[in-house]
Design a protein that fits this description.
There is one protein chain. This protein is mainly α. Helix content is about 45%, strand content about 0%. The protein has a domain of about 100 residues. It is globular, with a radius of gyration of 19 Å. It binds heme C. Heme C binds next to helix 4.
């Protein structure tokens, strides 16, 4: 009996720090266009999400390296303390958080935090699509034109 309840407590303890993957795909539907603004990123996303989980490694202010006070091997392009470094791949960012390979250690992303990230990434995707549509009226500076 004692042994059974010990096993039960142990499994409870283990499961509470090992949340399942988040089974949700980005939609590109932005519920609140003000989330596309750099101000929203600076004022909300950095403090409420990225500084909590990511910028200890993924920060443009940190030198390349492996030890404490460096990027600890995090790819240089993904820097979540700056807007242009945070939006380079909404898909990769979501995939790594949803499959719980990022952050690689320490605090878990809560459901609330995951929602915050999910909504913001959808607005980043929506903003990309808006940018893409502008190309019709574009200036003709075509990357291939020199070939
Ligand atoms: C303890 C340091 C550390 C933390 C904290 C961390 N990462 Fe990483 N991240 C890494 C390292 C090292 C790699 C490269 C190895 C790998 O891809 O797993 C990486 C890779 C990635 C990649 C893949 C980039 C590519 O080239 O495809 C993404 C996306 C990413 N991290 C997002 C995040 C997000 C979002 C957070 C916060 C929720 C986060 N990481 C937190 C260290 C970290």
């Amino acid at each position: 009996m004692l042994r059974l309840s010990l096993v039960f407590l142990l499994s409870l303890g283990l499961s509470s720090c090992d949340s399942p993957p988040i089974d949700r795909e980005l939609t590109g539907v932005c519920d609140d266009p003000s989330m596309m603004d750099v101000e929203y990123f600076d004022e909300v996303m950095v403090g409420d999400f990225f500084d909590v989980h990511c910028t200890v490694c993924h920060s443009r202010d940190l030198p390349v390296g492996q030890g404490v006070g460096t990027r600890r091997g995090a790819p240089q392009s993904f820097s979540y303390n700056v807007h242009d470094g945070a939006i380079i791949s909404p898909e990769d960012t979501w995939d790594r958080v949803a499959d719980r390979t990022m952050p690689p250690m320490g605090r878990e992303v809560s459901d609330e935090e995951a929602d915050l990230l999910f909504n913001w990434l959808n607005c980043v995707l929506a903003a990309e699509q808006l940018d893409g549509d502008d190309d019709d009226s574009a200036t003709g500076d075509d990357d291939d034109s020199g070939r």
